Amino acid sequence: MAISAPRGTKDLLPGEVERWQYIEQVARDLSRSYGYQEIRTPIFEHTELFLRGIGDATDIVQKEMYTFEDRGGRSITLRPEGTAAVVRSYLEHHLDTQPQPVKLYYIGPMFRYDRPQAGRYRQFHQVGIEAFGSNDPSLDAEIVSFTWDYFQKLGLTDIRVEINSVGCPGCRPAYGRALQRFVEPYSGSLCDFCRDRLGRNPLRLLDCKDTGCQEILADAPRLKDYMCDDCRMHFEKVQNYLQVAGVPVTVNEKLVRGLDYYTNTAFEVTCPGLGAQSSVAGGGRYNNLVETVGGPSVPGIGVAIGLERVLLALEKKGVPIPIEAPEIIFVATAGEGDFEAFRLMTELRRWGFTAEKDFLGRSLKAQMKSAGRMGARYVLLLGEEELREGKVTLRDMTSGTQTAVKREELFKVLAELRNRRQ
Ligand SMILES: [Zn+2]
Ligand SMILES: [Zn+2]
User: Fold this and answer.
1) Distance CA 159, CA 104 (A)
2) Can you give the pTM of this predicted structure?
3) Over 70: is that where the pLDDT of 258 sits?
4) Assigned CATH for 17-171+227-316
């Protein structure tokens, strides 16, 4: 029986993989402009890192992690997100002793045992940037601006950025209690999710999509009325910086990130027309995460962008992806000439051209056909006469013209042709 790829995973074949390379390259180029350097952390980590770094009360930790015991009896987990590992690495390599802020980006696969559907996989891919060591509101704005620019560069210009402040451990608990007091009388009408969260994490009620819950919360107290002066100022400045950067954002007071180490800025990017999968990026400030993972008190902020969603959006909106196909030079010959063809092909490759030849012992005529099929730009013909006289026939597959070229002049001729088109 043939074996298929595991449910929720996907092979990326030639033809599709170029689309991935493109959206990854745009992210790399943009990260460089913004001064973020790449970090590559392992695909798996000690499970403990995610228990601390994501929170053991979350759905991710409780239901979605790929956790297993390795042969040494250690509990190992395939990373379900990127931030925790970057924080671990920042601490392990004492990056907090370097000039701050330390600005890092990552690209790679993440793993969650989730129900697969369009745009959602068990192995999915994210681009993320993280900045450590500064609580300056302009850094929050930089992260949002990076996210905005990324989608603009890809041609996804109709994205929507929602932003909020979730306060800080100084002001948020008072709000949580007020919210709890307000909702308590209606707790019987809440959805299961909210009833479960009311005692532990009342802020999460705010982003519940259940209409019943939303009705109950319509007149609930608002976080901004409980925010301390520092948080209020921070949020205002973030918005001012974003205005300066020309990044349009909408304040959504119901946007919360439910974990204790999230502070101040929270934001989410949605792309209309993607249905249930419209969320394409999310981020925020996590000034207490580094400490939660076991380090000193170091502020941090970051964003993660879902690449499957990005590609889905590009496809749904019919945004063209510029894919540069290599210009192929096909060396055609027959019989004994194949040694010469192999030599010439190898030379061409060492000169930096993309070169091919026949590998199936086909006739010259069939070779010309296959050169056409693979979209070769030029064919170099090594017939009996050419071999005898030390030259090649250069056939331009677009115009159909043929010229005889001496072997010692071939590189010059091809280089000129290439320069002319650039
Ligand atoms: Zn505060
Ligand atoms: Zn609810």
Assistant:
1) 24
2) 0.93
3) no
4) 3.30.930.10
